[in-house]
Amino acid sequence: MVPARGTLRDDEDLTTSARRLLAEKVDLRKVAHLEQLSVFSDPQRVPGPRRIASTFLGLVPLSADPQLPPDTAWHPVSKLPEMSFDHGTVVRHARNRLAAKLSYTNIAFGLAPEEFAMSTLREIYCAALGYQVDATNLQRVLGRRGVLTPTGNTAPSGKSGGRPPALYRFTDSTLRVTDEFAALRPPS
């Protein structure tokens, strides 16, 4: 999450402003997916003059490595530092929204590299959801939904040898609903 503050320019809509702020703050000119998430407008959300926050969910692929200024850092969502005001609430809202979208859309395309082994995709899902996901079940569910395509390539074998893992890619790189009634749940 990048809390970017800025003024909406006269010639911009909110999405254009969010893209500009990402480019200026973290040198990120292209995100895999960007959507307006929510508006936080509680009059008491910050001290001083009233401020309204329009928040966005932006997904940066695993392979991206934008240059960050000294006052900015990436943090695992499971180990976020202390945040001011209602920023923790904003981040939790974004994570919950991403987790929900992982259940019923192909949104993971925005987090994955172009080609990936199922173990890599599993790690992405585990990090975003906050619990362990079985790679075999994940592959079966996503395969049934038609969101993954085998590339025909393999990754190098791991340290213990064995068969090289098959590589996959997402069929689409635009958001689409794949199962409107699905819900990923933590193991019981």
C-alpha termini separation: 29 Å
The CATH topology is Nucleoside Triphosphate Pyrophosphohydrolase
Rg of Cα set: 18 Å
Largest sheet, described in full?
A: 3 strands, antiparallel
Question: Under the CATH scheme, which class?
Answer: Alpha Beta
Looking at the overall shape, the CATH architecture is Alpha-Beta Complex
**Record field, number of beta strands:** 5
The computed structural class is alpha+beta
Q: Please indicate the count of domains.
A: 1
Which term fits the overall shape?
elongated
Secondary structure tally, helices: 4
Characteristic terms for this protein:
alpha+beta; Nucleoside Triphosphate Pyrophosphohydrolase; two-stranded antiparallel sheet; 4 helices; three-stranded antiparallel β-sheet; 15% strand; 28% helix; 188 residues
Quick overview of this protein structure:
This protein is an alpha+beta fold.
Topology summary:
Layout: H1 14-26, E1 33-40, E2 53-59, H2 87-104, E3 116-117, H3 118-129, H4 135-144, E4 148-154, E5 166-170
Helix pairs in contact: 3-4
Task: Characterise the protein shown here.
Keywords: Hydrolase. It comes from Rhodococcus erythropolis (Arthrobacter picolinophilus). 15% of the residues are buried. The strands form 2 sheets. This protein has a 3-stranded antiparallel sheet with strand order 3-5-4. Helix 3 packs across helix 4. The longest helix has 18 residues, at 87-104. The protein has 188 residues and is of the alpha+beta class. The radius of gyration is 18 Å and the shape is elongated. The chain has helices spanning 14-26, 87-104, 118-129, 135-144, and strands at 33-40, 53-59, 116-117, 148-154, 166-170.
